[in-house]
Design brief:
single chain, mainly beta, 14-stranded antiparallel β-barrel, 17 strands, 7% helix
Length: 306
């Protein structure tokens, strides 16, 4: 079992170390529909109030040094215009590697007709990537790997994202792109300053949408779809269906293709305090080592600005 866990962790580390790998570089959240601003900066300003969202995600519990992600975001409208603003910061940690990213955003929205509006947004910030080589255990296998450096190294790069968002009382749809600059990162594990080996931040594309089916005066059925795409990897769709009772409590199920099935629930206190919990049941080959993934969400809504 120890050997199997070592192989898994080594594979995860190499995936994160090689930014050109065919996998997602951006963090993911099962409760993304409570913070779709982090997916699409055009969401800022589409509500009449300022809000704050915090997330905590412990992925693949049971595997040592498995990924953990934490984020804080805030966004809202300006008082006397159709503009919005916001910002977020997240930390993504897996064993000896970590990413710390932040962005600030601006959005402008306008009416298409009496019931539908469209918004466009742009976010700019940066990301720090760090690897702590001192965290590796002494091992003949690792000591013989020339890419392993037993020191702490980091690099910083600017980053940007943009999105378009269409919405009404009954539906929303949006498309966005992240890591627009596609910057190259010097291989921070390589001692050779003349090394030509580089890593690159790949562009990520997101397509999301949802609809409110009003079943009666008490219940709303809200399906949402999110599709992630990072070329040349295949797209990853995620379908979530939630049932909401009197805008007070809700429960739902989600399926993320090739990864997990999620069970989720939440509570809205006085339409001001928001709480959410999700548990992901791993469906990939990691399920034999993982006890699943747990994610918490807390939100706070402030008074209406307009």
């Amino acid at each position: 079992m120890k050997t199997q866990k070592f192989i898994i962790l080594s594979g995860l580390f190499l995936l994160l170390l090689n930014f050109s790998a065919k996998g997602q570089q951006m963090p993911q959240f099962s409760l993304y529909h409570f913070n779709n601003y982090m997916i699409n900066s055009a969401v800022a300003g589409t509500h009449s109030y300022l809000q704050v969202r915090t997330f905590s995600r412990m992925q693949w519990m049971g595997i040592p040094n498995s990924p953990q992600t934490y984020s804080v975001s805030f966004y809202g409208p300006t008082k006397d215009s159709d503009m919005g603003y916001g910002g977020y910061i997240y930390g993504d940690y897996t064993g000896p590697t970590s990413r710390l990213a932040f962005k600030g955003s601006y959005a402008y929205n306008m009416a298409i007709n009496s019931s539908i509006r469209i918004s466009g947004g742009l976010a700019i910030g940066g990301m720090q990537y760090k690897i702590d080589g001192t965290a590796f255990d002494e091992s003949p296998v690792l000591d013989s790997d020339p890419s392993i450096n037993r020191s702490v190294r980091s690099t910083f790069t600017p980053d940007a994202s943009a999105g378009i968002y269409v919405y009404s009382t009954y539906f929303f749809a949006g498309i966005s792109a992240h890591q627009l600059f596609g910057n190259k990162l010097k291989n921070i594990t390589d001692d050779n300053p003349d090394a030509t080996t580089v890593n690159r931040l790949k562009q990520h594309f997101y397509l999301m949408g949802g609809y409110n089916f009003i079943l009666n005066k008490d219940f709303i059925l809200r399906p949402t779809l999110l599709v992630r795409q990072m070329f040349p990897a295949p797209p990853q769709p995620e379908l979530t269906i939630r049932t909401i009772y009197q805008q007070l409590v809700w429960g739902g199920l989600a399926y993320r293709h090739g990864d997990a099935v999620s069970i989720m629930a939440g509570y809205n206190h006085e339409s001001r305090w928001y709480f959410g919990l999700a548990y992901d049941i791993t469906t990939s080959e990691l399920r034999q080592y993982s006890r699943g993934t747990v994610e918490f969400m807390f939100g706070l809504r402030f008074e209406d600005l307009k």
